[in-house]
């Protein structure tokens, strides 16, 4: 199921469940002319990383094809898709979560026709996890 994988990666990029995470600085470094000493806490911001236009050509547009074998925009730079974390702290359950999403989506899309309830706000709240501010309601009809 490669295309659903692309869709879920694009959803992860545009709507990550968390905004980022804190990490302890182990070795001092310079960032944009600022000295960051060891021992400080640094925030890795997923919300700021995912829409970078030098990585994703049209960062505001929903485009699952950027994750196609031809696209591979997220592989240009390490840590450019971090919805499940990255590096040694990547989510241990990432493969299970992605398989579960595919199975649930296949069941929901196969048996029902879905549409959003009219006039609802899909504005999001970023903390603690990203979610619609007023919830999200659907009307569904069994096929």
Describe it for me?
This protein has 143 residues and is α+β, with helices and mostly antiparallel strands. Helices cover 24% and strands 21% of the residues. It contains 3 helices and 8 strands, in the order H-E-E-E-E-H-H-E-E-E-E. The model has no long low-confidence stretch (mean pLDDT 84).
Quote the beta fraction: 15-25%
How do the SSEs run, as a string of H and E?
HEEEEHHEEEE
Helix fraction bin: 10-25%
Q: Figure out the total of helices.
A: 3
Strand order of the largest sheet: 1-4
Poorly predicted tracts of residues: none
Classify the secondary structure makeup into a structural class.
Answer: alpha+beta
What is the overall pLDDT average? 84
Number of strands: 8
Sum up the overall morphology in one term.
Answer: globular
Main sheet specs:
2 strands, antiparallel
Terminal Cα separation, in Å?
Answer: 23 Å
Using only C-alpha atoms, the radius of gyration works out to: 18 Å
């Amino acid at each position: 199921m490669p295309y659903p994988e692309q869709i879920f990666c694009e959803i992860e990029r545009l709507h990550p469940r968390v905004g980022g995470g804190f990490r302890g600085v182990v070795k001092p470094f310079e960032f944009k002319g600022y000295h960051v000493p060891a021992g400080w806490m640094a925030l890795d911001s997923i919300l700021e990383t995912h829409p970078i236009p030098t990585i994703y050509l049209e960062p505001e547009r929903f485009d699952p094809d950027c994750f196609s074998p031809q696209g591979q925009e997220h592989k240009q730079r390490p840590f450019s898709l971090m919805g499940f974390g990255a590096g040694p702290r990547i989510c241990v359950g990432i493969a299970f979560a992605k398989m579960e999403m595919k199975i649930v989506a296949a069941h929901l899309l196969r048996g029902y026709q879905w549409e959003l309830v009219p006039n609802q706000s899909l504005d999001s709240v970023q903390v603690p996890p990203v979610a619609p501010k007023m919830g999200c309601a659907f009307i569904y009809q069994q096929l």
